[in-house]
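SUBJECT: protein chain
CONTENTS: sequence, structure tokens:
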Amino acid sequence: MRSLMTASTTKAEHIVLITQQLADERPGFFAIKGAGAGDRDTNAFMVELRRRAVAALATDYSERSICGSNKLTVDFYIPDERTVIEVALSLRNPGSEFERDILKALMAAEAGNAVDTLLLISKPGGRKRTDQPGARAIIDWVQAQHGLRVIVHDLVAAHAA
């Protein structure tokens, strides 16, 4: 894998780039597969994403238990960037874990971890869904009341070969 990081690229941005590159390499990644097949594909995707992120960043930021004395984990936590990253591939769906991802970031901050930003990486449609009034109200509230900035980044299906 060629390096995607430049001097001005943050670690969080680098994880976004790795995620996009990995999605581009997987034929059918953006197709809706349903339960079972979709879960297996997502699990395999996450294993490889974590492996590549560790190789690229020389530190394992994945699967961090930072939400207090429970078993909740975040996909990635980059302390020096004060950023939680959740790979929320199903964010475009009404039954996604959008609210739970926000709650985990807030719990992490309450547990004493520096968290200013929650970055949600989604398949196409996640940003559109979170721009709807209900989700937008949650994002605006969490920013105003807790100082947590929520960023939604949609992967680009057009990159897929």
About this structure: The helical segments are 11-25, 37-57, 98-110, 126-130, 133-146. Residues 116 and 133 are 23 Å apart (CA to CA). The chain has a mean pLDDT of 91. The two ends are 17 Å apart (CA to CA).
